[in-house]
Amino acid sequence: MVSPNTKLPSTKKQRLSPDRVLDGAMALADEIGVDAFTIRKLADALDTKPMTIYHHVAGKDAILDGMVDRVFAEIDRPPTDLDWKSAIRHRCLSARDVLARHPWAASLMESRTSPGPETLGHHDAVLGCLRRGGLSLEMTAHAYALVDSYLYGFALQEASLPATGGAEMADLAQGLIEPLPADDYPHLTEFTTDYVLKPGYDFRAEFEFGLDLILDALEARA
């Protein structure tokens, strides 16, 4: 967590601009999350005053719009030299990595009512990929809704977990299961001891399994 007195080194003592405001906003949100994000905290992090920020951006909504547009800019669009399923898979793996870097973003990605050019271009590219793959408009709607529901849902779940793998996950699972009477929770005990606590378990690996399941099912229906 960033303290109220933390200054962002990449922007401190440099002339403010809309880009520098967004740089600072992204860095601050990555540190404290979007729920705790305020213009005053951003001004403190940028070593300036709230009213100075308003000279460069219209307000908090404009900042959030810009932040979301920047997140979309980081996500690879579906490559046009791959078949539609491989291209969408590539895009989703990229999106998951980006959302893991910006855990605050998943809940905002489709909530903005003034989308920027990167947001619009990304959506257009995904729709174009599905249409080039031969999916009807109806199947394109089904596919886009299903894939992104899974993508954002997984990102939100991953961001909320106290641990996803490694020693941290093993300690968490062990501490959870040890006090429980095994006879009262036999399936939870079995799953934890015989799967989660085995070396190499990582919840994040479940993403690709689910994604491939969805894409295979969509291909079969299409």
Keywords, separated by commas or semicolons:
Tetracycline Repressor, domain 2, 3 domains, Arc Repressor Mutant, subunit A
Report a brief summary of the structure.
The protein has 222 residues and is mostly helical. Helix content is 62%, strand content 0%.
Strand and helix layout:
Layout: H1 18-32, H2 39-45, H3 50-53, H4 60-74, H5 84-101, H6 117-132, H7 137-160, H8 166-177, H9 186-196, H10 206-221
Helix pairs in contact: 1-4, 4-6, 5-6, 5-7, 5-10, 6-7, 7-10, 8-9
CA distance, first residue to last residue = 46 Å
Number of domains: 3
Broad shape:
flat
The biggest beta sheet is recorded as: none
Strand content: under 5%
| CATH architecture name of the largest domain | Orthogonal Bundle
Assigned CATH superfamily of the largest domain: Tetracycline Repressor, domain 2
**Mean pLDDT reading:** 91
Indicate the radius of gyration in whole angstroms.
21 Å
Which regions contain 5 or more consecutive residues with pLDDT less than 50?
Answer: none
The helix/strand order is HHHHHHHHHH
The number of strands is: 0
Name of the level-1 CATH class of the largest domain: Mainly Alpha
Under CATH, the topology of the largest domain is which? Tetracycline Repressor, domain 2
Q: Structural class per helix/strand content? A: mainly alpha
Helix content: 55-70%
Assembly state of the chains shown = single chain
Annotation field: number of helices: 10
